[in-house]
Amino acid sequence: MAKNGRVTEAMSMLSSAIQANPAMAEGLVRVRTRWAGGTRVIGNARDFAPITVDEPPGLGGDDQGPTPVELLLIALGSCQEIVYAAYAEQFGIKLDAIEIELTGTIDLRGFLGIEPSVRPGLTRIETRVRLVSDAPEERLRELTDLVERFCPVQDMLTNPVPITTSLAIERPTAHSVSASRS
Fold it and tell me: Is residue 113 classed as helix, strand or coil in its secondary structure?
């Protein structure tokens, strides 16, 4: 867990700055992905090491990394844990441990186009949260309500986010074709 009120201090300073200048509230999050052949994709976020995303052999992959759906569940669980830690610190609730196990249910008939009435994505997500704390159960349930209300990833999964796509089409050049054969 965060030490010495670092999370609370950071949230308080950011909140004050945004209240003083509401234009500061909106930011951009950018990542980049690049197809690496087969079902493998390399993802980059800021200056961190690249993340390999792949599918298991049953879906034509080489199992070189988590699937996009697994990464989505990791994003949800980790975001919830960060929000638990932040709000627990803010409200003086001592947490010794937070663990979240997430299970997503998917019907591959949607992804494979077998059944048009079946959605291609997850149909259900279940989370099992384990908190280690000597705080009263009522306080921990209130904390859980805050997490469900303020977790950004949970919000994006429960409320549709508009997605716009712009497409840039480039034709291979003689140089790029010979380079890809090397």
Answer: coil
Structurally, the chain folds into a number of domains equal to 2
Q: Where are the beta strands (DSSP E) in 5-40?
A: 31-35
Evaluate whether 85 touches 2 at the Cβ level (below 8 Å): yes
- CATH number reported for the structural domain that contains residue 71 in this entry: 3.30.300.20
CA dist., res. 143 & res. 178, Å (int): 58
CA 28 → CA 24, 25, 72, 110, distances in Å?
Answer: 11, 10, 19, 31
Residues 26-55: pLDDT tens digits? 999 999 999 999 999 999 999 999 999 999
For residues 128 and 51, state if they share a domain: no
The range of the structural domain enclosing residue 44 comes to 28-65
pTM of the model: 0.88
Amino acid, single-letter form, for residue 92? G
Are residues 49 and 117 located together in one domain of the fold?
A: no
Strand order, beta sheet including 51-53: 31-35, 41-45, 51-53
Within a domain: residue 159? yes
- Residue 53, classed as helix, strand or coil, is strand
- Both tokens of 38, joined, read 């087969």
Which is more confident, 111 or 179? 111
